[in-house]
């Protein structure tokens, strides 16, 4: 014969204690999780921008193209289209010898090939389209639209003007629908997570993260 076993279940009081503990842990951990999630999202967008800049300039140096373009097309606070394009040697020579010469045109017909196009789900520092173009030797480094004559500011003591800045959507909505560098450090202004991608006329890319009071290289 089977012996009777003394089996006990949870009492209502014990269940209430467990539920209360879970609720407290969740309430404490949720803000930290959301902050981590937002930072990861913005960081990923900055890495995608840096990767596209590096990739198109690598193809330029390898001779796949003679002239290349990096383009930012804002789509509001929730999305931004990033595109890279290039032209071949024949097209470059033809444009070089034309009346207008080499241009950083936003006209798709000017370019032989769209190399990459992605949509990042974060806002950038501008609400208008802009482009930057690179040549092998840096002599035809040109900008158009919102990437021309950008707001200058200092990163670790050095003045910069060639950059893309990304931030979280909720922050951008508070400061005019874009990651406004002019409000950095001000009350209700640009706050972290914010990531910065710098480029030189030779296509060198550097990435920074905004901390409590300064930019940290990544």
Give structural notes.
This protein is 30% helix and 27% strand. With 218 residues, the protein is of the alpha+beta class. It has a single domain, classed as minor pseudopilin epsh fold (3-Layer(bab) Sandwich). It has a five-stranded antiparallel beta sheet with strand order 3-2-1-4-5. Strands 8-9-10-11 form a four-stranded antiparallel beta sheet. The chain has a two-stranded antiparallel ribbon with strand order 6-7. The radius of gyration is 25 Å and the shape is elongated. It starts with 11 loop residues before the first helix and ends with a strand.
Summarize the structure.
With 218 residues, the protein is α+β, with helices and mostly antiparallel strands. It is 30% helix and 27% strand.
